[in-house]
Amino acid sequence: MIKQPPYLKKGDQVAIVCPAKKLPKPIDKAIAILQGWGLEVVLGETVNASYHQFAGTDELRKNDLQKYLDDPNIKAIIAGRGGYGTLRIIDELDFTAFLQQPKWLVGFSDITVLLSHAFAQLQMQSIHAQMPYTFADSTPEALESLKNSLFGQPVAYHYTSSFKGRNGQVEGQLIGGNLTLLIAVEGSVSEMDYTDKILFIEDVGEHEYAIDRMMRLLKRKGKLARLKGLVVGAFNEVAEESIPFGQSPQEVIWELVKEYGYPVCFDFPTGHINDNRAMVLGKNVSLRIDHPNVQFKF
């Protein structure tokens, strides 16, 4: 059974660490927002560390994250940003104390590695949501969704999609994250089981052919066929090629899943966008699609 960390309450301590890329700018606004929620913010050493592209050496980033995984006073660990680097330290982490006293892990993009590992190996819920690096540009709705997810308040999203998928209604356990990082953990101990799950995916800066290649890997492994539903978030900043691929990211994905019977929606507010709504991995959610209207709640 998937486990749920305790919801936060005012006065709780939360830690900000950077397990991947270094922060290029201060996160004072994000700290103020979290404090405004009634939380006590503790900053890890990696918040101000720099080693080439990374927020410190692999050893420093591993030790910083480990410190707060082990600290019983910390009730949530929020990644300062993504980038690249979590994959380099994930196998060196010890989750013994974390399992004894679970806490929320929060982030997106490269942090998908940590969230996927938490689901696959620890059977623990986690939150795919805005990070301090993105707080300043975030929509109020996205930040509110993170707050509600952390404090255990109901969350519901309603939007209209411009790209038609497949209508339907389904309930199930939510998994997913950044497509590139989901592929990066395939075949490892951090690989999630897709069977009877509602999968959400997003990505940024990838060519259409790369999206096609990654989705075909999931299809060839039989993972797309075993889903209960598919939620497609933002696939933005797609680089132009000298010779066009001929399909948009949405067309690529739809071509590979249109033969199945489960509900599929596009343009979902998740990913590398300002309106990056919180998604709780491992949570039972409901999805209803009546194109162009989409309803999602947990």
Unreliable stretches (pLDDT < 50, length at least 5) are none
Question: Mind telling me the C-alpha Rg?
Answer: 18 Å
The separation of the N and C termini measures 17 Å
Overall body shape = globular
What is the makeup of the main sheet? Answer: 7 strands, mixed
Quote the beta fraction.
15-25%
Helix content: 25-40%
Structural class: alpha/beta
Instruction: Give the SSE order as H and E letters.
Output: EHEHEHEHEHHEEHEHEHEEEE
Q: Characterize the quaternary organization of these chains.
A: single chain
Q: What do you see in this structure?
A:
The chain has helices at residues 28-36, 58-70, 96-100, 112-122, 132-135, 140-151, 179-184, 208-220, 249-257; strands at 13-17, 40-43, 74-79, 104-107, 126-128, 156-160, 168-178, 197-204, 229-236, 264-265, 279-281, 284-290, 293-297. The mean pLDDT is 98. It has a 7-stranded mixed sheet. It has a 6-stranded mixed sheet with strand order 2-1-3-4-5-11, with helices on both faces. It has 298 residues and is of the alpha/beta class. Helix 8 runs parallel beside helix 9. It is globular and about 50 Å long. Helix 7 links the parallel strand 7 (168-178) and strand 8.
